[in-house]
Design goal:
654 residues; alpha/beta; Spore Coat Polysaccharide Biosynthesis Protein SpsA, Chain A; twelve-stranded mixed β-sheet; 24 helices; 25 strands; Nucleotide-diphossugar_trans
């Protein structure tokens, strides 16, 4: 319906203020007062306004329109009065919005709430209400997320957990989530250290979910308080069904009026999907794109289970807010104030074509082998803007030194990193045999076993592989890790993103140290330590990185001789000196507290071994001065991409 038709309908209904507002909009939209001058004058007459609109300018029309929009009468307009005829249709079980509401009828959320209230709901089984997990992802939605979470806290369903996955918000979003999680035990807060898109965050939520059924919810939307109860009841009423979805409506936030979508007041949605958790084991996780992968996942469900096993509840229980930076704005074209047309943007259309072709060529039983999580590369090539994964074009190697007392922790490290890297190198210091979980890596792993304590090179073994790669002119991304840290699902994506940010002209890591050149003892309290398990608000240039958390590009180094690391047990310092000699800055990256955590089982560490016996380290530091900001300035030099890493006040630490 055109804006003019809506205005005329409102005028005929006697809603003169609402009609006048639309006539003003028409004049402004077409920059022509003559189109609606008569209509405006008739509204003025009924509203007892004095004067004539004939002499008004468009600027005056715009001012009058803003004043009218701000009036209490218009703000309180249309608070939900469904006609007896519509109520009768609802009682008959009619849910089709085209039958319940006329094409030119203005609708408010209050109408939809009345519709739900008059629609009978099937009862949940009294003996068992399965645990439901609702996963909400968020990124910079501080204005909306509390209301979104409140709408979930108000759910009538009795057995519910709410998992919030923050996708590296830079505003107060996560602070709000943390506050609410402390107040309400049902809310569990998690976060990513790099922005990887809503589907990567959803996948993390799936790994954390304990529920038998998983629903999803956007952080700028709200839902009806009976959404979960009605959807679960509908799913349980169809025991063979794998998923359920309800209808959603788009809503403008000023007056809570419904925005018709392709002339529909509401329609079945993909964001409303509730899925039995077992489905993810059968068809895999969401594809890790920036948008449209709920559609891709839906197509996988259909291919695996059949369309009839995804049951629909045509009832508006979910409400999308219309805001300028929503993920779907690239699909929207406004036809008037209360109506939009929505179709796939070129990028989404290309993606739809790509994934449909891939799914047609792939047997459904193989889906789970492709759509894994976590991952650093896309399943298939995507156009720019569709993915935030690192997608490294070079192989990613990780090198680890381990001692036998940490074999169990090493198994956890391998499990965490295996989906994120291509190849492993292990220096097994004192192991009697190679553990089975390493053997299962096959060609992805190379192993050096040191059984002789007298000849062990200990943690220097992390760099055996680097010497080989440089000798054979093999370029790659090189990570060194410890056997007693807990590495998160976004670890490699985050480090590779940081390398890209600095155009690979730096070494990045998590645990960093700045030391003054005048230091008299290596483990001195004068050291500035950015501990790996503590938060860091922004990237900081440092003198030394802990080699349990390091990443760099191999080709940044010209050559490397492991023999230069002459003493075992102090590889962090040797590597820092090596970086200085190769004019490479080391950077401790921004992270939130406990992004990395320790899992050493109370076994001895190199720090406890050397903190009171650090003469060799102290001598090395003194012989390779300067350190502090003097060294950092030299390494930054004129490299433009590194300039922001030099603190404004940098004169106090030399």
């Amino acid at each position: 319906m055109t804006l003019f038709s809506q205005a005329n309908q409102l005028f005929r209904q006697g809603s003169y203020q609402q009609a006048l507002s639309l006539y003003y909009q028409i004049a402004l939209q077409y920059k022509d007062l003559d189109l609606v001058e008569y209509n405006i004058s008739q509204c003025w007459k009924h509203l007892n306004y004095h004067g004539s609109p004939q002499s008004l300018t468009l600027a005056q029309i715009e001012r009058l329109w803003h004043e009218l929009e701000a009036s209490p009468e218009l703000k309180n307009y249309y608070q939900g009065n469904i006609s007896p005829y519509t109520l009768d249709l609802i009682a008959q079980g009619v849910t089709d919005p085209q039958r319940l509401y006329t094409p030119n009828q203005l609708l408010n959320v209050a109408d939809l709430y009345q519709q739900v209230a008059h629609t009978p709901s099937p009862e949940l089984p009294p003996a068992h209400c399965p645990l439901v997990s609702v996963i909400m992802t968020c990124h910079n939605t501080e204005e909306y997320i509390e209301e979104a979470l409140n709408s979930l806290l108000l759910q009538t369903y009795p057995n519910l957990e709410i998992l919030v996955i923050d996708d590296n918000s830079r505003d107060n979003t996560f602070a709000i989530v943390e506050r609410m999680a402390k107040a309400y035990g049902r809310i569990k807060a998690h976060r990513l250290n790099v922005n990887l898109g809503t589907y990567y965050a959803k996948n993390l939520g799936i790994t954390k979910a304990k529920g038998e059924i998983i629903f999803f919810h956007d952080s700028d939307d709200v839902c009806h308080h009976e959404r979960i109860a009605r959807c679960v009841a509908h799913l349980l009423a169809h025991p063979k069904a794998i998923a359920v979805r309800c209808a959603y409506a788009r809503v403008e936030t000023e007056y809570n009026n419904v925005i018709r979508l392709n002339n529909n007041a509401y329609k079945l949605g993909l964001i409303t999907l509730g899925v039995r958790k077992e489905a993810f084991a059968q068809v895999g996780y969401f594809n890790n794109t920036t948008c449209a992968s709920d559609d891709e996942f839906y197509h996988r469900l259909v291919a695996k289970y059949g369309r009839q096993q995804i049951v629909g509840l045509m009832l508006p229980l979910y409400f999308n807010t219309m805001r300028a930076d929503s993920l779907f704005v690239d699909m929207v074209e406004w036809t008037n104030r209360f109506s939009i047309n929505q179709e796939l943007s070129p990028m989404r259309a290309n993606y739809s074509s790509t994934f449909k072709k891939f799914l047609e060529q792939t047997p459904p039983q193989k889906y789970k082998d492709y759509f894994t999580f976590p991952r650093t590369r896309d399943v298939y090539p995507l156009e720019t803007g569709m993915s935030k994964l690192a997608n490294p074009k070079l192989p990613v190697y990780v090198s680890i030194c381990s001692i036998p007392s940490r074999e169990k922790q090493l198994a956890n490290v391998v499990k965490a990193l295996s989906p994120q890297v291509d190849y492993f190198h292990f220096y097994l210091d004192g192991y009697a045999k190679v553990p089975k979980f390493i053997e299962e890596l096959g060609d992805r792993a190379t192993v050096v076993v040191s059984k002789d304590k007298a000849t062990s090179i200990r943690d220097n073994g992390k760099f055996i592989l680097l010497e080989k790669l440089l000798k054979n002119n093999i370029d790659a991304y090189y990570l060194t890790c410890d056997d007693d840290l807990v590495y998160p699902v976004d670890y490699v994506n985050c480090l590779l993103a940081k390398l890209a940010q600095y155009q690979e002209q730096a070494v990045v890591g998590v645990h960093g140290v700045i030391i003054p050149s005048s230091i008299s003892k290596y483990f001195s309290p004068q050291r500035l330590v950015y501990n790996f398990n503590k938060g860091l608000e922004e990237d900081r240039a440092v003198n030394i990185l802990g080699t349990g958390t390091v990443a760099f590009r191999v080709s940044q180094f010209k050559e490397f001789k492991l023999s230069n690391f002459s003493q075992p047990g102090m590889v962090d310092l040797y590597f820092a000196i090596y970086c200085k000699e190769n004019n490479l800055l080391q950077v401790a990256i921004q992270r939130f507290p406990e992004w990395l955590s320790e899992d050493n089982g109370n076994s001895a560490t190199l720090f406890t071994e050397y903190k009171n016996n650090d003469k060799v380290q102290t001598s090395l530091v003194q012989n390779h001065a300067p350190w502090g900001f003097t060294a950092i300035k030299q390494l930054i030099g004129d490299k433009e991409v590194l300039q922001t890493l030099l603190p404004t006040l940098n004169f106090y630490l030399h």
